[in-house]
Amino acid sequence: MATWSDVRRIALALPGTSEIESHGRPAWTVNKKFFVWDRPLRRSDLAALRDEAPDGPILGVYTGDLELKDVLLASDPDAFFTTPHFDGYPAALLQLKKITAKKLKEIVVEAWLARAPKRSAEQYLAGAARARKNR
After folding, report:
1. Which end of the chain, N or C, is less surrounded by CB atoms within 10 Å?
2. Taking a C-beta distance cutoff of 8 angstroms, is the pair 96, 57 a contact?
3. Domains (ranges, CATH) in the chain?
4. Burial of 118 (0-12, 13-18, 19+ CB in 10 A)
5. What is the reported pTM?
6. What is the mean pLDDT of residues 6-22?
């Protein structure tokens, strides 16, 4: 089960990331753009989801595009979900208690890559490739 400590550790390890407060909750940005954020369910979300509304910590995840959002939603419907608030917007919601810290890292890195400046993303990917090669 992933935790907020895992989110913070993973996000802040990525180049150019800042932790800010948005609506009294933590959010992580790169290039002044959110890529992951604490997103509790709102009254309208609860009304839309009804009995399907999950409990526990919810992470908002920027997906870069609607196609990737659909892929994430289909890949693990127990963990990923959306609400009408996010219709037409490239972001999904993730129940932290439904994934491992290892899977969380993949998700956070992909969200960061979608928002990071191109040069930073390229440098990060090149460094990750070198690290894999040297193992």
Report:
1. C
2. yes
3. 4-130 (3.90.1150.30)
4. exposed
5. 0.93
6. 97
